[in-house]
Amino acid sequence: MNGFDTSGNEPYAPVRIFDTTLRDGEQSPGASLTVPEKVKVARQLALLKVDVIEAGFPAASPGDLDAVQQIAEEVGGAGGPIVAGLARASATDIDKAWTGVSGAEKPRIHTFIATSDLHLERKLCMTRGQVLEKASTMVAHAKNYCADVEFSPEDGTRSDPGFLVEVLSAAIESGATTLNIPDTVGYAMPGEYGELIRYLIGNTPGSDDVIWSVHCHDDLGFATANTVAGLKAGARQAEVTMNGIGERAGNASLEEVVMALYTRGDRFGLYTGVEKDRLVQTSRIVSNFTGIQVPPNKAVVGPNAFAHEAGIHQDGMLKDQRTYEIMRPETVGIPRSRLVLGKHSGRHAFKVRMEELGFTLSEEETIDAFNRFKELADLKKTVTDADLSVLARQQITDPEAVHDLKDLQVACGQPGMSTATVRLAGPGGTETAAAIGAGPVDAAFRAIDQLVGVRSTLIEYDVHSVTAGIDALGEVTVRIRESDSEEGRVFGGYGADTDIIAASAQAYLAAINRLIVSKRAVAAVGEPAKAQPGGSSRVGHGA
Fold first, then answer.
1. What is the 3-state secondary structure (H, E, C) of 178-241?
2. Are 282 and 349 in the same domain?
3. Which residue among 116, 120, 223, 427 has its CA within the 20 to 30 Å range from the CA of 391?
């Protein structure tokens, strides 16, 4: 092993990073994003320098089509990433996918059909011959629109390898330029997945003329291991998501795959063009938008990934950082040093430190974040880098302010009932409401409910402190469902304050605002598209 990261790419081979956070990742239960949020995430992924952004599934709904179109036009310009749209192997889906991605400088249509006998018999009700014909015809249809066509045999790891060769050969003959082999249900083991990729590359006519891709799910915890095994076997594109979010147990994590190839270049001989020092920043932005928190022990981007508490570890770190760290924290975007900021600091120092932490804010955003910083500095003796990161993420992820929290006052204790008085500025002006609850947070949420005029159900509430001490900045994330229905959409909200009740109210109101904005968008474009026979309007287990 080389100790720390390798210094250069040569003579390593390049690997494309295909990010599907906005398609497969958004299929995580409760991870729905609004169109503006998807565009912001796509911009961040472009800054991260991923090679391909799978922007969505345009046939799923008018909102998804709108998001893909905006990403293609605003993020997929000259010098930007390839923008892909997913489509089932149907002419209607492919037509909509092209409508979505056609505005990009480098558009891609990604089409798929299941190939395992289980899916053929129980889901598609088709024969192998029919699937073979459908795959060939639909790849050709996509090729009429787009020079860059990707094909995926869904449930590839549970398909007959011989039949896979037939289908993949037909896809190549019809014009496919990338062949992706999905472990759709996370069934494969690393050794057998690597063997499958090696077999397909070695036995498929025309295999040298296409890029082979891997797409692995984490149902048994092998998504990253399977992905790097497939790359080792000859694949040169990895389909991944930030933080590993996705259907069920999720997908292979972008940050894990990228850093595995980078840190163990001696073993893989591969490299990516990802800007690794933006990994943590991107991880946090995706986490805040989706409302899905990153576990403390998450590899590479988790809060504890570079934390050391045991005395033996601390002693080793003081003597040589490499004793207990195989990656430098600076490499993934965690600063080693910090500029101490307080209430006497000026805006210039504040802006410089924000840029050093990886946050590029507009002038208006800088002014707003600086004002929040000043308010925090009056409450805290020292504002840490963690506090500054929270301020920046809060600025970036604030939703459209349909309702704005102006004042909050609570009374609680024993004996007695908890009460809260809330004043909101909204479309109808400034209004005030008071409520009684089981505690101060419950009372504040009930008071907000009286003023916003929408029905929702709180399904998750998470709170933790960013730094140590009694003056710690507290972060709160909530998730709400738009109605009492189990099928209702889920929206996330984020808030931060030294007053945890105020942070809770901010987070709850942020989620409410996203719900309201989404309802307005749905009302403007009509109801989501209905599922076609044999499928659903929301892609199942992901090609």
1. EEEEEECCCCCCHHHHHHHHHHHHHHCCCHHHCEEEEEEECCCCCHHHHHHHHHHCCCCEEEEE
2. no
3. 427
